[in-house]
Amino acid sequence: MIKQFFRQALTMMKQHKLFTGIYIAGTAVSIAIIMTLFIVIYINLGKIYPEYHRDEILLLDNEWHKYNTNGGPSNRSGYFNLDFVEAIKSESKHMKAIAVYDWNTSRIPHPITVDGNNVEVEEKVTFVSDGWWQVFDYKFIDGKGFTENEMRENVAVVSESLATQLFASSKVADREIKINGQYHRIVGVVKDATQCTPNSYGKIWLTIYNPFASLNTYAIHNDEKHFKIYTLAHDGEREMMLQEIENIFSRYYQPNEQEYDYELDILNYWQNALYLSKNDSIWAALKTYFYIILAVFFIPALNLSGMIASRMNGRMVEVGVRRAYGATKQEIVSQVLWENMLLTLLGAVAGLLLSYAVVYIFSYRMTTFINSHINYAAEEGNQLSAEMLLNPTIFLCALLMCVLLNIASALVPTLFALKKDIIQSLYHKR
Q1: CA 183 to chain centre
Q2: Computed from CA positions of residues 350, 195, 155, 91, in that sequence, does the dihedral angle turn out positive or negative?
Q3: pTM over 0.85
Q4: pLDDT, tens digit (0-9, with 9 covering 90-100), for 368-418
Q5: What pLDDT digit, counting tens, does each position of 58-115 carry?
Q6: Mean pLDDT score of the chain, rounded to an integer?
Q7: Which of 15, 91, 39, 31 is nearest to 301 (CA)?
Q8: CA dist 114 to 117, 174, 184, 301, Å?
Q9: Which of 86, 118, 200, 268 could join 136 in a cystine, given CB atoms 3.0 to 4.6 angstroms apart?
């Protein structure tokens, strides 16, 4: 039966080329707009390399303090010190991993060279703790991440592209590079991340205790506040870890200065990416895009529905003949839906390809549409990976859009046409 419907649909497409072209083009444009939004949202919020734990990551974002007397002003610090980190590590029972990131000094480029090689590059070095390799799932091509025992040593993890640029090979674990003229042993090489993952993107990682990790001195002091903290909880213990960190924060900060009241902001990954506060829901940020999707979906559906209604008006005699020979209303509705499903699928394929082209060509504008933390370096070129585009979630969204668009545009005019009795259909336009 379905084969017969598709054969009839192909015959109809050959006979009504203008209608077919307009229908496919209209579907393609609407699907392209919707899928572009889906792709952009997925890149910013979905599980992509090396941030496969985005739904589990908690970011300790801000520490607020205000005078508890005389109604003094509030002040905010976006950073924490290592003493607080050690307090969390030693007291938390529900934490799976903790990663520390030196925000201030990681923005400074350093000259990198190799003995016997005339190549010199300048790269922004990222200073992190040993837990960085647990919070973020980097794929190690060679070696591994530095361990807690190596945190006081001059060790480095480099990206595959940087290793190839310096050594013409990615298998360079245990070899040495010079950073600011000081030797560092490479302990691991990771597959390149993209700038679409701004929290984990980098070319070279050193430990937070590295001599170059301090802005003004050559030693890290535990009371210096310039560290960001990411944490992961054990399975099913997220809320308990959240409360635990709040309690540790209260005990650690409040006794230090009794004249202040302290408050901690702990954000989910998506709250940080969408510039939300800890009390905001994801709906607060995405409702605008939801309304855009509804508009882009229903306006073409109404236009296509009008086209189908006009075509059904011309097929009333055909409908009358089929019903006279025993075809049920359900069979006729199924035929029309399958015919339009074929057209919708063709339009959807065109729209999906168009959406990929739009996102790929305008990758910077598209990917920063939601998350302005993403900051492309022009020389890096396009940063979109196949994983970001060719994802099962995106295909399922495309398929769902096709089905909904087909039903919304074809069902109503078909049911309306079937309200006429057989005699009216047979004598239509006579």
Answers
A1: 37
A2: negative
A3: no
A4: 665 555 555 544 555 677 777 777 777 777 778 777 777 777 777 777 666
A5: 998 777 656 555 555 566 666 788 888 999 999 999 999 999 998 877 778 899 999 8
A6: 79
A7: 31
A8: 5, 13, 10, 61
A9: 200
pLDDT digits (tens, 9 = 90+) for 42-58: 888 888 899 999 888 99
Q: pLDDT category, 161, cuts 50, 70, 90? A: very high
The C-alpha atoms of residue 156 and residue 125 are separated, in whole angstroms, by 10
Structure tokens at 259: 């004249």
Alpha carbon distance, N-terminus to C-terminus of the chain: 31
Contacts of 159 (CB under 8 A, 6+ apart): 189, 190, 191, 192, 193, 202, 203, 204
- Closest C-alpha among 223, 206, 211 to residue 85: 223
For residue 1, give both structure tokens. Answer: 């039966």
Joined together, the tokens standing for residue 310 give 């006009």
- CA dist 269 → 53, 330, 379 (Å): 9, 48, 28
Query: Residues 147, 153, 155, CA angle at the centre, nearest 5°?
Result: 70
For residue 416, give both structure tokens.
């309306």
